[in-house]
Amino acid sequence: MEYRSLGRSGLKVSALSFGTWVTFGEQVGEDTAAACLVAARKAGVNFFDTAESYAQGRAEAVLGRLVRKLGWKRSDLLVSTKLFWGGDGPNDTGLSRKHIVEGALASLGRLQMDYVDLIFCHRPDDRHTPVEETVRAMSHLVDRGLAFYWGTSEWPAELIREAHDVARRERLVPPTMEQPQYNMFHRDRVESEYRRLYRDFGMGTTVWSPLASGFLTGKYAHGVPAGSRLSLRGYGWLRQRYGTPEALRLLKKLGQLDRLAASLKATMPQLALAWCLENPDVSTVITGASRPEQVAENMKAVDAVGRLSPEVMEKIERILGNKPKAEPDFRTQ
Ligand SMILES: NC(=O)c1ccc[n+]([C@@H]2O[C@H](COP(=O)([O-])OP(=O)(O)OC[C@H]3O[C@@H](n4cnc5c(N)ncnc54)[C@H](OP(=O)(O)O)[C@@H]3O)[C@@H](O)[C@H]2O)c1
Question: Would residue 84 count as lying in a domain?
Fold first, then answer.
């Protein structure tokens, strides 16, 4: 496994990491969850991601129980959680100081941990909470040793910049990393919108849904297999997302990508994950899996990165046809 710096921080995070969304506390039982964790750890994964909202807190509880049961040394691991959707009450949601502090303590309780390594604001809340209140509360979590680094998830670039401005002005701890969606189908934010943030703040990224919830495996080419994520109750919204004309246009390209993967002696999931890893602004790619066999397959993507020559990347670019537009350089126009 390769270990990368989390942005400009001193932290080393495994290039591939493992997340608990949909699966832990919901789709899979604890034995399968444990087998997935073991397979990931065996491959060198040191970073495990969860959130207070995943399976209404059960994902955190399962992860915490299993880390204890497996007897893993806490300092070998990076564990993250995310705050925003903590419950039904008017103060259980959002990024107020109250929810951030209470939410973090509740998460740590479920995880049975004294601290998390990373903590994220799961979405922006600036419609309801001044950014300064949120930055101050997240900075407070770090000062209290409840988390080592804090970050954002799916915040617009301008709001991340505002958080940095507030932190600098008020001498608070600034955000270190962002957790955006990134995969072959979904590129703009990571490749274009955030471009200046890497340069200006050394922002790290822990990217999610690298297989577009499984679409990039090609498994949905002929319908929805039983037991797969899209077959689960409550995920109709996800089925709809991949029914749009743009999604259908991209899905048609999977055959070509699959053939390219085979020519590189890789599987389609491995090609899709390796493609994410090729981006130097990606600190870690958070993978997901409902079975340990998927974890084993996905972890081999690290070996496929070396096979992505500039010519291969160019071929992929031509197949996808969705490269975000570069900002113009007026000196060369
Ligand atoms: N910050 C955020 O807002 C946010 C949002 C979403 C996710 N995340 C984080 O990112 C993590 C990863 O996201 P994700 O689970 O959506 O990742 P993903 O890689 O896009 O999808 C993972 C799913 O694809 C299927 N799959 C994976 N490997 C496969 C393989 N080799 N062959 C066939 N099917 C395979 C499995 O589902 P089935 O077997 O059930 O089909 C698996 O659960 C989450 O666990 C979470 O920690 C964060």
Answer: yes
